[in-house]
Amino acid sequence: MPEPAQLSLNTATVRAQWNLAQCVDGCVRHGIGGIAPWRDKLHEAGVSEGARMIADAGLAVSGLCRGGWYTAEGALTDAVLDDNKRAVDEAVAIGAACLVMVVGGLAEGSKDIAAARAMVEDGLGQTLEYARGAGMPIAIEPLHPMYAADRACVNTMRQALDLCDALDPDASGALGVACDVYHVWWDPELPDQINRAGASRLLAFHICDWLVPTRDLLLDRGMMGDGVIDIAGIRSQVEAAGFSGLNEVEIFSAETWWKRDADDVLTTMVERGRTAS
Amino acid sequence: MPEPAQLSLNTATVRAQWNLAQCVDGCVRHGIGGIAPWRDKLHEAGVSEGARMIADAGLAVSGLCRGGWYTAEGALTDAVLDDNKRAVDEAVAIGAACLVMVVGGLAEGSKDIAAARAMVEDGLGQTLEYARGAGMPIAIEPLHPMYAADRACVNTMRQALDLCDALDPDASGALGVACDVYHVWWDPELPDQINRAGASRLLAFHICDWLVPTRDLLLDRGMMGDGVIDIAGIRSQVEAAGFSGLNEVEIFSAETWWKRDADDVLTTMVERGRTAS
After folding, report:
1. Is the pTM of this model over 0.90?
2. Rounded CA gap, A54 and A249, in Å?
3. Residue B44: exposed, middle, or buried by beta-carbon count in 10 A (0-12, 13-18, 19+)?
4. Distance (Å) from the C-alpha of residue A168 to the closest C-alpha of chain B?
5. Interchain proximity A149–B188, CB inside 8 Å
6. Taking CB atoms and an 8 Å limit, are B213 and A213 in contact across chains?
7. What is d(CA B249, CA B32) in angstroms, rounded to the nearest whole number?
8. Per-residue pLDDT averaged across A107-125, rounded?
9. CA Rg value for chain A
10. Confidence check: pLDDT of B28 > 90
11. Is B228 on the interface with A (CB under 8 A)?
C-alpha cells in the first residue's frame, strides 16, 4: 500500500497530456515522491532546465527511460553507442537512480534472435563501462515476450540476471534489472528470480496492471487494480529481497488514461497506490 | 522444408471457411498428410462420422485440439474433469497422435496464478490417469505468456516439462508437450528445453509465424514466412531431438487467412511449407 510519497510518476503515464514541467508540477500537487522522465520529454524541456525543475521540486528520480535499442541499426554503430553514452550523461544530470534499458528486438529483416541477444550483450557491456565511470547504475528491463521481435529481446528476469552475472560478476551495483510487473507477472520463476536479484540488482520497480482482455499489444496497459496482476504480492517479494526504492507507475493507455484529464489520472494513481498495490 | 505429406492442417486455420468434411477433402486435394481437428468441428460432424471420414481419406491425425481449461469453474469440478475424459475418448476415436491441452488461465476474479497452476497440475494428473488407461498421450501446450491470464497459465517449455517430470517421472510417453513455434520462439531457453524434452516428450510440433506488428493478441497469427520466426531452425532442433511427427499448421487470422478462399490458404500453406519452414 504505497503512500504517494513512495510513488514515482513515469512521464509515459500522462504522455499525451503533459510536458515535463507539467508532470513535475503535478507530482508536487499530488504529493508524489518521484518522477521518471522519458528522454523525449526531457529533451523538449532541455536537460539542464529539466534537471533544475526536478531538483527545485524536491522530487526523487526513480529512473531515466531509456537507453538501449542496440539492434536498431543491425550493428553496434557509433551512433547507437554514442546515444547510450548521452543517455548515461542525461541520467547523471537529473540525478536518476538508474538508466533503464530497453535493449532492442530483432535487427531489421533478421530472424536470428540469438544474434540480436549477442549484440545486446556486447552493447550493454560497452555502455556499462562508460556508466561505471559516470557512477550511473544501468537497469536492464526484461520486456514481456510479446515484444521480443520489435522492442526487446531480453524477456525474462532470469535472462536479464544472466546478463548481469556475465557483465558484472561481482554484483557491484553498477548493473541490475528494472522489474516491471506488466512484463514479468506471468513468469513461474518470478519469485525465485527476484530473490536471486537481491538488493544489489533490483534497481527499479514499475507498476501498472494487465487488462483482460488486452486490446493492443503496446498501448493498453491498465491502472493498478483494473487487471489481474497481484501487484501487492510482487511488491512484497521485491521488498523482502531488499528493494527500497519508489514504485514507479508507467501506464501506456491510448484509449483510456491518455484521454483523461491528467490530474484525474494522478488522483487515481495515488488512490490505487493505496488500495491496489 | 516439409513436403505436403509432412504437413497437417489444424482446422483452426480455415475455421471460418470449412467444416470438417471440407477440411478432410481439402487435405486430400492438396496432398496434405494429416489433420488436427478442433473439437467443435468434430462435434458438428459427429465423432464417429468424423473418425470415419478421416480414416477413409487416409489422413494421419497429429492431434485433437483441445482438452484442458481446468480453471474454468474455479475448481476441478466433475464437469471439467468429465469433459477432459470425453476429450480423451474423442482423441482415441479419431486415432489422434495426442490430445493437446490448453490448460486454462486464472480462475474468474482471481489474481493468484500460483493457485491456477496448482489446479492445473492436479487436473492434468487426473486426466493423465484416465488417458493412460485409454492409451492416449497427453500433450501440454505451453501458451505464449500473453495468454497467461485468460487461456493458459503454462507458459514456457521449461514449465511444461517440469509438469511432465512431476506427473510422469519415467517419461513413459503418456505425457509430453506440444511445441508451437508461435508460443515459444522468443524463449532464450528454447533449444535447451527442446533437448530436455527429447523424443519421448515431443508429441506435437505446430507452425505459423509471428507478425510485426501483431494487431490482435489472439487472431493475428501469420502464415509461415510472413513473420520473424526462424521456423526451419526450430524444426531442425525438434527433429534433432527425435521428433518425427507432422508439422501442424495452426493459424488464427481473422483479418487475413480466414477471409481468403480456403483452397488458396492450403495452396499457400503447402508452398510455405516448402519455402519457409
Report:
1. yes
2. 17
3. middle
4. 20
5. no
6. no
7. 11
8. 98
9. 17
10. yes
11. yes
What is the mean pLDDT of the segment spanning B169-177? 97
| 111-150 of A, contacting B, C-beta below 8 A | 111-113, 117, 144-146, 148-150
Cβ neighbours around A56 below 10 Å, total: 10
Instruction: Write the DSSP symbol of residue B76.
Output: -
Chain B contact for A225 (CB, 8 A cutoff): no
Asked if B254 reaches chain A (Cβ–Cβ under 8 Å), the answer is no
List, for residues A14-33, the tens digit of each pLDDT value.
999 999 999 999 999 999 99
Which residue of chain B has the CA closest to A109? Answer: B228
Note the residue count of chain B: 277
Edge-to-edge order in the sheet of strand B7-10: B60-61, B34-36, B7-10, B247-249, B202-207, B175-180, B138-140, B99-102, B64-68
pLDDT in the model for residue A1: 82
Contact at CB, B111 and A229, closer than 8 angstroms = yes
Check if B156 contacts A (Cβ < 8 Å).
Answer: yes
DSSP state of B205: E
CA of B190 to nearest chain A CA: how many angstroms apart? 11
d(CA B238, CA B248): 13
pLDDT of residue B1: 83
pLDDT of residue B12: 98
CB pairs A-B closer than 8 Å: 73
Buried b or exposed e, range B127-146, using 16+ CB within 10 angstroms: bbebbbeeebbbbbbbbbbb
Q: What is the pLDDT of residues B190-241, one digit of tens each?
A: 999 999 999 999 999 999 999 999 999 999 999 999 999 999 999 999 999 9
CA angle B179, B183, B187 (to 5 degrees): 90
Cell of residue A19, nine digits: 510536458
Return the H-helix or E-strand segment holding A119: helix A113-134
Mean pLDDT of all residues in B9-21: 98
**A105 has a pLDDT exceeding 90:** yes
Q: Are A34 and A11 in contact (CB under 8 A)?
A: no
Nearest CA in chain A to B231: A111
* ipTM here: 0.97
